[in-house]
Structure formats: C-alpha cells, structure tokens
Automatic annotation (TrEMBL):
One cellular component term from this protein's GO annotations in UniProt: plasma membrane
NCBIfam families assigned to the protein according to its UniProt record, in alphabetical order: amt
Molecular function, one GO term: ammonium channel activity
Name of the protein: Ammonium transporter
Residue ranges occupied by any Ammonium transporter AmtB-like domain in the UniProt entry: 47-440
Matching PANTHER family: AMMONIUM TRANSPORTER MEP2
Keyword Nucleotidyltransferase: no
PROSITE patterns cross-referenced by the UniProt entry: AMMONIUM_TRANSP (PS01219)
Principal location: membrane
Keyword entries, A-Z: Ammonia transport, Membrane, Transmembrane, Transmembrane helix, Transport
Lineage, uppermost ranks: Bacteria, Pseudomonadati, Bacteroidota, Cytophagia, Cytophagales
Family label: Belongs to the ammonia transporter channel (TC 1.A.11.2) family.
Length: 463
C-alpha cells in the first residue's frame, strides 16, 4: 500500500467536513432577512401557496414509488432512494447557492448573481415586488425549491439499476447548479432572455421535464445498457401497486405543481387546476385505447404512464389554454410518447430504463410546442407567429444546452467517481451492493462470491 493511498482522504470525509463548515458559517453569519410590513401580504394567497408547496413536495416520494415499482426487486430500494435523497441534497444546494443562481440579480439574462440570495440573504417574510408580490419571499423560495428537487430525481429512471450512488449524488449537484439553475433563470426570472422573448412555461415543462428528459437521453447513452438489456428473458413488473400509488401521489401533487404556479388563490390557479386534471385524464384513456388498438389488453402500468405523460404535457400550458385544448394536449402527448416508447424499445439499443426521454422529454416538448400554438391571445391559432417561433427557437437552445451540458457533467463525474457499478455489483443488485439493504432473499452462494470479489477489488486498489 502506497503512502499516498493511506493519506488520501475520502470524498465522503471531505464532503462531511465541508457541510460542517458551511452549516457553522450559516448559523453564525448575520444576514438580513426582511420582515413583512403589516397588511403587505394576502392571507388567502399564503394559505394556498403553503398548501401547494406541500403538494409539490409529496411528488418526489410519489416518484420514488412510481419508479420503484418498475424495476427488479433487487433494485427497488436504490431506485427509490435516488429520488428520496434529492429532498435533502438539493435543499442544501438551493439554500447555499441554487436560489441565487436561478433568481438572483441577472447577468445579461443568463444567470443570477450567486451572492444575491446566498443562505437566504435578503429573503424573509417580506414579499418581493417582482417575484412574490402577495406572499412571503421565503415561501416563494420554498415553492421553487420543490421544483429543483424533483428534476434530477426524474433523470434517475434513465440509469436505474446500474449507477453508483456517490456518482449520482455528485451528478445531481452539478446538474442543479450548471443546468437547472440557468434554465430556471432564462425562463422564469423577469430578466431571463427566454422570458423576455415571450417563451411561455407556466409550471416547468421546459425547466423541469424537457431538461430531465434530454439529460436522461444523455445519461442512457453515456452509461450504456444494463447487462440484462436485450436478453430474451421474461420480466414481469414486480410491483404494479407501487406504480399505481406513485401515480396517485404524482397526480395529487401536480395540482400544487401547476395551480401553485399561479402564485396565489386566484382564477388562474383554478384554470390550471382543472386543465391539469383534464389533460391527465385524456392521456390516461388514450394510452389504454392505444394498447388495445395495438392488439394488447389495457394495463394498469399503461394507465399510470399515460396519466403522467398527460401531466407532463399540460405543465407548460396549464395557465394559458382552454379546457378543451388541455384535453387535446393530453391525447396528442399520449399518442406521440407511446409511439416513441414502442420505437425506442423495439428499434434501438438505447437502454433508457424507465423511458424517461419518450415520456418526460417528448411529453414536455409536445406541451411546449402546443403552448405556442394554443396560448391565449398570443398563440399560433390566434394569428401570431411570434410566440410559436420563439418557442421553436427556445426549444432548440434548451435541448442543445441540456444535452451537451449533461454529457459533459456525466463524463466529468465518471472521470472522478466512476458512474457505473461493476458487473458483479449490478448482478447482485444495487440495494445490496450500494446500500447493504434488501427487500428479498438472495442466493447465499452468490452473495459469498460477490463478497470475495469485493475484497479482491479492495486489495487491488490499495496496491
């Protein structure tokens, strides 16, 4: 064993030390947190936004059940944890730097000043005149945090069953800082260049779903297929009730996701609430009908996937379209995503484990383009080419930025940590190999063989 190997601290130890230092600084540095003046806040808006924020939070545990029900039993815990852990990691990133990068003082409409709201500096119970005129600014911070949390969690479906946990944590932080925050700034900050162009994204079709879907495509390419991918093996989804539970929680939370983006208890919230339900319902039914038309039977899994695709597609349009248009958006999204899932799985070697790109990526793209078509008074059907044209241009920019950015971040993460688990770890399952937890009994002889390989690898690394 070399001296450098003995003295080299682990990444976990360095991260823990950094967290202790940052939390100590946060506890003792006196930063201004402006308090609200009596009468400056709307009680009804505050009540709704507190509720909506909690709704959106429940979506991430919902996603963990949704994804956890679609993987093999030996990977259920790891898959669910990959979503759940974002609640902790992204909350800290958002507090220390993320919120400032997304909503801080704008630098040429591209990114926020990281010092503007660092550690909630200048963020308190007082409203912000532009971002949160009727509610506490700190509540706006909390609401937007939940969007930042679920976005990297969505990506995990593309590399489920083969990613190293510590590498995923590193990628999640990098993705939030270098991709999610710039996209949020471009789209939602008053000075963001996409917003100034007139690109409409009511609740995150671009910022959340397209970014997650495109990053998922990059991740599936970089990590490569699972060892089981392409084998002629029968695999029955292990826990459909988990998927149904996850879908229910996602649908429930999505009302906060979309209607909460009205930032108040108002007519816009009511419109987007109903549009959210109608698009999801239409996509659910359309997906089932497509399964039957293809010669199969209507499945619970199909109903759940269809419902989520409808939720994704209506997200950018929820506050800008009519009820009937929301139904059409749901149906069209189901048709396109279902066709893409079928093509991806039957005609390509891409192993996007849980079809994140065709469902979230393409679902978000369909929603963004149809927002440019149907948006009230400014859409293509109202005789205006401007909004739709900027949506097409914005879409091209977002796709290029996200794919290239995610590719680079994945490569950097792979270089430092190694993205993919070893074949023996993948065969054993990520629950045991990454977390030493399991929900089912494994073959003892296989586990002993795996343990011997672990010891051998550890010795080889130290020599």
């Amino acid at each position: 064993m070399s001296r450098s190997t003995v003295l080299r601290p682990s990444y976990s130890l360095l991260t823990l030390a950094g967290l202790i230092i940052l939390s100590t600084v946060a506890a003792f540095v006196d930063l201004p947190h402006p308090s609200a003046v009596p009468g400056s806040l709307n009680a009804a808006d505050m009540a709704w936004m507190l509720t909506a924020t909690a709704f959106v939070l429940i979506m991430t545990p919902g996603l963990s059940f949704f994804y956890g029900g679609m993987v093999r039993p030996k990977n259920v815990i790891s898959t669910m944890l990959q979503s759940f852990v974002a609640l902790g990691v992204i909350s800290l990133v958002w507090y220390f730097v993320g919120f400032s990068l997304a909503y801080g003082e704008s630098w040429h409409g591209l990114i926020g000043n990281p010092l503007t709201f660092v550690m909630l500096r200048n963020v308190g119970t007082a409203p912000h005149p532009l971002l949160s005129p009727n509610i506490p600014f700190v509540l706006f911070f909390a609401f937007q945090l939940k969007f930042a949390i679920i976005t990297p969690a969505l990506i995990t479906g593309s590399f489920a069953e083969r990613v190293r946990f510590k590498a995923y944590l590193a990628f999640m932080v990098l993705f939030c800082i270098f991709i999610y925050c710039p996209l949020a700034h471009w789209t939602w900050h008053p000075e963001g260049f996409l917003r100034k162009w007139g690109v409409l994204d009511f609740a995150g079709g671009t910022v959340v779903h397209i970014s997650a879907g495109i990053a998922s495509l990059a991740a599936a390419i970089v990590l490569g297929p699972r060892s089981i991918h392409g084998r002629k093996t029968s695999f029955v989804t292990p826990n459909v009730p988990y998927v149904i539970l996850g879908t229910g929680l996602l649908w429930f939370g999505w009302f906060g996701f979309n209607a909460g983006s009205a930032l108040g208890a108002n007519e816009l919230a009511a419109l987007s609430f109903v549009n959210t339900n109608m698009a999801s319902a239409a996509a659910l039914v359309a997906w089932l009908l497509i399964e039957v038309v293809r010669g199969g039977k209507p499945t619970a899994l199909g109903a759940c996937i269809g419902a989520v695709v409808g939720l994704v597609a209506i997200t950018p349009a929820a506050g800008y379209v009519t009820y009937g248009q929301s139904v059409l958006i749901g149906v069209l999204a189901a048709l396109i995503s279902q066709a893409a899932v079928h093509w991806q799985n039957s005609r390509t070697s891409l192993d996007d484990t849980l079809d994140v790109f065709p469902c979230h990526g393409l679902g978000g793209i369909v929603g963004m383009l149809l927002t440019g078509v149907f948006a009230d008074k400014v859409g293509l059907i109202h005789g205006s080419m401007t909004t739709f044209s900027y949506h097409v241009l914005g879409l091209a920019i977002v796709i290029t930025f996200t794919f290239v950015g995610a590719w680079v971040l994945l490569k950097v993460t792979d270089l430092i940590f190694g993205l993919r688990v070893k074949p023996a770890q993948e065969e054993l399952g990520l629950d045991l190999s990454q977390h030493e937890e399991s929900t089912y009994h494994i073959d003892e002889e296989f586990e002993q063989t795996y343990r011997k390989e672990q010891v051998r690898d550890a010795v080889e690394q130290q020599v």
